[in-house]
Amino acid sequence: MLAIAVACTALMAAEWELALDANAMFALNNYSDNWAGGDAGGMNWTANINGMAQKQLAEWLNSKSTLKLAFGQNHTQSAATGDWFVPTKATDLIDLESILRFTLGAFVDPYASGRLESNFYDIRIPSNKRYFNPIKLTESAGVARVLLKEEKREWSARLGMGIRQNIDRDVLVLTPDPLAEKETQSTNDGGVEFVSELRTPLAGDRISYNTKFTAFKALFYSESKDLEGLPNEDYWKAPDIVWDHSFAANITEYLMVNLYIQMLYDKEIDLKGRHKETLSLGLTYKFM
Question: Of 135, 173, 221, 237, which has the fewest beta carbons less than 10 angstroms from its beta carbon?
Fold first, then answer.
């Protein structure tokens, strides 16, 4: 709730350092009914919104909020019948984070932060589609330091203790009754969190590069007793790693190329690292 409160304050107040841009990509290929060769039509689109609000509220207090929204779908057509299949998600992200940093003039600054992560549309179970689910809430506090601060370039790092809540709403639960029931499932863990963020221009300001590295080492887990004796009983103790990279190059004022790379490691989900790459050419617009 801290993240939402600070973000709303940022939008209503004046004299904030504000940034907001949006971009969209759309691709379509279609064929006539008598087309030969077995080709099938397809369509995909993605939309992204990135926002930032930052202000030195007082000599001793700095506030910064960031918002990332992304959603996209893939649509494919049957080559045999020409019918369109149910669309699948290409990307889906809601990420809101707010940080209060106490700038007391020391080598490091104390901070408190709140973060909300979710999806617009949860289709992991086709028969149980849910909106704004699952939800991950992270509250942390510790020390932070701005390593570099310029007009278009900023590098910061922070280290602290964090608590995370993972909430999965309206989960189907099989019962003897033919109609399955639904319940909300939640887990909690806490431990040490390290975050490093960098934004900088490249190639003479023609390309902007943003990267964020997050590592979380859990020290306790609410479901640890239920895992005792199982092969994966200690998997929750392994550090969770998230490393995001975003390259954006403006070809013209409204035309841009965007490359997004995300690398993940969560031993509870998979023993190997995972990665995601999205390359898009589309329209962009900077509101601020």
Answer: 173
| The residue to which tokens 């990665």 are assigned | 275
Sequence-distant (≥ 6) Cβ neighbours of residue 19 within 8 angstroms: 50, 51, 52, 53, 286, 288
Residue with tokens 């863990």: 189
The backbone torsions φ and ψ at residue 223, rounded to the nearest 5 degrees and listed phi first, read -105, 15
- Stated pTM of the model: 0.87
C-alpha distance from residue 180 to each of 173, 174, 177 (Å)? 6, 5, 7
Give the residue carrying structure tokens 């849910």.
130
Contact yes or no for 225/234 (Cβ under 8 A): no
Cα 28 to Cα 42, 77, 196, 255, distances in angstroms: 6, 11, 38, 18
Q: Do 42 and 76 touch, CB atoms closer than 8 A? A: yes
Torsion of CA 266, 209, 257, 7, to 10 degrees: 70
Domains of the chain: 2-286 (2.40.230)
Residue whose C-alpha is closest to residue 201's, from 154, 156, 262, 243 = 154
User: Which pair of structure tokens corresponds to residue 153?
Assistant: 């370039």
